[in-house]
Amino acid sequence: MKKALAIMITVLMVCSMVFAGGSKEADPEDLTLRMLWWGGDTRHTPTLAALDKYTERTGISVEGEYAGWDGYYQRIVTQLAGGTAPDLIQIDQPWFNELCSRGEVFAEIDTSIVDTSTFDKAFLDGYCTYEGKLMALPTGVNVNTLVIDKNMLADAGIDPEIQWTWENLISEGKKIHEKDPSKYLLAATPDHVRFWFEVLMAQIAGGVVGPDKELLFTADQAEQAFNYIQSLYDNGIIPPYSQTSLFYQRLNEDPNWINGQYAACWSWVSSMDKDIGQRDMETTQFPVMENAVDTGVLMRPSQLYVVASNSASVTESLKLLEYMVNDEEAAAILGTARGIPSSSKALKVLEDANVLSELTVTATNEGIAQAGKPQSTWQMNSEVIDTMQQVIDEFGYGRTTAREAAESMVTSLESTLSRL
Amino acid sequence: MKNKTLKRFEGYAYIGIWLFGFFALQLAPLVTSFWYSFTDFEMIGGADFIGIRNYADIFKDPDFLLSLKVTFEYVLIAVPGKIIFALIIALILSQKLRAINIFRTLYYIPSILGGSVAISVLWRYLFMEGGVINNLLSVIGIQGPNWLGDPKYALGTISLVTIWQFGSSMLLFLAGIKQIPVTYYEAAEIDGASKLRRFFSITLPELSPIVLFNVVMQMINAFQEFTPAYVITNGGPLKSTYLYGLMLYETGFEFFHMGYASALSWILFAIIIAFTLVIFKFSELHVHYGDE
């Protein structure tokens, strides 16, 4: 019996040693840092090259862990929960508050190690600060844009340089569908219909959910937005819901989009390359109504860099972060792998080297000129988004009228917000 | 003496690796998830005991009832569909035909490709509006429905993916058919029994233990189905393919309500156990074993 007990204890000890992982502050000599990001090859290749350069310079090796977008959020949450998160992590801005609210998962940015004077202060305050502490740095600037196929406009007899208004979006836009019934002005997968709803609500009422978890709109205002969306369907500006529902969050996989059946789509500058694919497209500005409360055009960091609080060495991780955002050599290697850099130092390097693609610069400037207030963290909450999407799905499938959808939007959101 | 002690542990050593896997990778998560189902665990941060609140909330959750309804419908379509289909193909493939092994292999291929993501993506392009299936149908003058975009048809279309992977059930049937003594059929033939009569009076009763096994296994799998609904339709349109597994995933890995999700999975476990017991009880009347 005693023997059995001894064996069990030994096994337990071995197990605890195996699962406990590394110690806190390792010797810098044989320190290996880990950095995690998502993206495609255009991001992986320069990032890995920049990390190699860093190792060359400091002797500290950095293991790049990179993946696609699918399952990325699940991955970091699991790693943060299990204490196995990499040292330097790229996260999406909407996750920042949700993750910070779950405990001390990220380290505070020590401004004696990382030079934050190269960043726009409002940007840091608005997007990177949690409860007064700077916990993240933006990788780049990202804005909404309207990607558009000007040849398709010209073919339908629309002036390619048209300034869009909500009125001419319908009066001019319907020419495309009238000329060829299989074509539409705007791509509108269910998530895109939701984006347009949010743009409309920002202009009509200033937003959907405010910073204090309060609804910013009335049912009458939502009805106005739904009526407009209904007229987009009625006039053949956007394709029917049943045709697009299969490509929820996957517009770039929709054959109708790839083959040029839709002329334009809502996008982010950081991901517009994916949407554009092989098509020949340009960007343009969003329609804004007179007396709009806000434009609904979003501007935010492309992504954020954070340092895990249980990093093997927070100090060394912060040094790596400084290198990634402010180093001139790194900036030259990284280019626009994460959008137009937020750090003025890195931006200058790219401007001097003349490597900024014209489309990206134009789109970013167009967006910044139109940018409205940031959405509240509550509006970006995954359950709030899910609730909005469900109401819009019902409406898109014609199960509810504009009035019913508007009322349902109010009651469903109130019920979801009360649970959060 | 020493030798004897060694002998006693020898067996455990053989299954030691399996035991480790079982305890660390199956039993431990199982027990933990049971504990989590009584807490408000949200992945990061601690887990506070909240009694049966998760369970109480679940039964008031309209999404729970909806996903349960969708899942039952799915099980009712997919399980009988798959088993009947597998049985028919097995009957055909049990004939003495030339190159029969090639056909047997061919029919098993869908099961190897299985519920993978690639197949699900392929399915999406086959059945989308203006996809391959509807194009083929239009050649013979049929206007195909919007298979995946119409809430009326989406669940049925998803079930087809499952039914299409009939290979393993088919193999079991095939092996079972081979076991049936030829003398039964010879006797029946002399008595003038028709082919249909022979199937219902000999083949089916003799295969009943295999039918039982297939029904139970396929039902357990069907209740937990996830991939096709997630990849092809993401639960839509209008939640018509919102399977229980999908709700579980969304709750646990998108909203990170792990406590709630754990409770959901234990409820699913209870449902599966209950149905399995009912089927076993029912089988006592209808399943015939050769040695009885």
Describe what is shown at a glance:
The complex is a heterodimer of chains A (420) and B (292). By secondary structure, chain A is of the alpha+beta class.
What would you say this structure looks like, in words?
The complex is a heterodimer of chains A (420) and B (292). Chain A is α+β, with helices and mostly antiparallel strands and 420 residues long. Chain A folds into 2 domains: 31-139 and 302-342, D-Maltodextrin-Binding Protein, domain 2 (3-Layer(aba) Sandwich), CATH 3.40.190; 143-300 and 367-419, 3-Layer(aba) Sandwich (D-Maltodextrin-Binding Protein, domain 2). Chain A has helices at residues 2-20, 41-58, 72-82, 95-100, 121-127, 150-155, 166-171, 174-179, 190-205, 219-234, 241-244, 255-258, 272-276, 314-326, 328-334, 344-353, 358-370, 382-396, 402-419, and strands at 32-38, 61-67, 88-91, 129-130, 133-134, 137-138, 140-148, 184-186, 262-268, 282-284, 299-301, 304-307, 340-341. In chain A, the strands form 3 sheets. In chain A, strands 7, 8, 9, 10, 11 and 13 form a 6-stranded mixed sheet that branches. In chain A, helix 2 (41-58) runs antiparallel to helix 15 (328-334), helix 9 crosses helix 10 (219-234) and helix 18 (382-396) runs antiparallel to helix 19. Chain A is globular, with a radius of gyration of 24 Å. The model of chain A is unreliable at 8-26 (pLDDT under 50). Chain B is mainly α and 292 residues long. Chain B has a single domain, classed as MetI-like fold (Orthogonal Bundle). Chain B has 14 helices and no strands. Chain B has helices at 2-14, 16-36, 53-58, 62-93, 100-113, 117-127, 132-139, 154-164, 167-179, 182-190, 195-223, 227-233, 244-254, 258-286. In chain B, helix 13 runs antiparallel to helix 14 (258-286). The radius of gyration of chain B is 24 Å and the shape is globular. At the A-B interface, helix 3, helix 11 and helix 18 of A face helix 13 of B.
